[in-house]
Write a structure and sequence with these properties.
Elements: H1 2-22, E1 31-34, E2 38-41, E3 55-58, E4 61-64, E5 67-73, E6 96-101, H2 105-111, E7 114-116, E8 133-138, E9 141-142, E10 145-150, E11 155-158, E12 169-174, E13 187-193, E14 207-213, H3 217-241
Antiparallel strand pairs: 1-4, 2-3, 3-12, 4-9, 5-8, 5-14, 6-7, 6-10, 10-11, 12-13, 13-14
Helix pairs in contact: 1-3
Length: 242
């Protein structure tokens, strides 16, 4: 029985190692940016943790392949990685700003797929805490998100919308760096400016969101199975020796 458990562990681990050697380091959905009516860049501001100098595309369209995506309110940390200790995201805007994902605002609000920089009924009567996130499985194509902003959230910008710079603009950036990157990549940054391009304050802290694509589950599950099998084999050995 011990030999069979050992064989099972080695089989699972070996399969996971083979799959890993055949696959790239990241195997999962990717994000890309197309179009856009201009380019802009993040600017330094006290408390800002968005990568300094990172560029982006104003009014560009953010698209992704089919898969799971996690949306994090703020979440910009050291080296641009999400969910670190020095997160920001709600910025310094005095007006209500909201970010939502879904076919329309009402649907996103009903499902709770929405962030608010100030207390609002759409977010349960409270302001969204930095680091709050939700994960959605999306089909391939344009990522269905939008920003609402203003004293009563009466301005609207949706993903892929063009020629709306006079009402404010969002900026999209793939990965990290000091220049515009359209992708493809597994992380995208979205930021809302409270004034129009190209004369925005360029802090993009008024509402900032990290979009992280999740790896394909197949390799993760197989590797996990190998680890579980090894643990089972070790427990079996301890029992046999007792």
């Amino acid at each position: 029985m011990i030999m069979s458990n050992r064989f099972l562990a080695v089989t699972f681990l070996g399969a996971a190692m083979v799959l890993g050697s055949m696959s790239p380091a990241y195997a999962g959905p990717v994000l890309t940016v197309t179009g856009g009516s201009g380019t802009d860049s993040w600017q330094t501001e006290t408390g800002q943790s968005i990568p300094t100098g990172t560029g982006g595309t104003v009014d560009g369209t953010l698209s992704g392949t089919a898969g799971a995506y996690t949306f994090t309110f703020g979440g910009f940390g050291l080296n641009g990685l999400p969910l670190m200790s020095n997160q920001t995201g709600d910025g310094n805007a005095s007006n209500l700003n909201e970010f939502w994902v879904g076919p329309d605002y009402a649907t996103a609000k009903a499902l709770g797929d929405i962030f608010c920089n100030h207390a609002d009924a759409a977010c349960g009567g409270v302001a969204t805490a930095v680091g709050t996130q939700f994960t959605l499985v999306l089909s391939a194509g344009s990522v269905p998100f939008g920003f609402t902003f203003g004293p009563t959230a009466n301005n609207l910008i949706t993903n892929g919308q063009t020629n709306n710079n006079a009402a404010g603009a969002y900026l999209v950036q793939i990965g990290t760096g000091t220049s515009v990157s359209t992708g493809p990549g597994s992380i995208a940054y979205l930021g809302l400016s409270d004034t129009a391009y190209p004369n925005s304050d360029r802090d993009f802290q008024d509402l900032a969101v990290t979009v992280t694509a999740s790896p394909e589950p197949s390799s993760m599950l197989l590797m996990g199975a190998g680890i579980i099998a090894i643990g089972f084999y070790r427990r079996s050995r301890k029992k046999a020796r007792a």
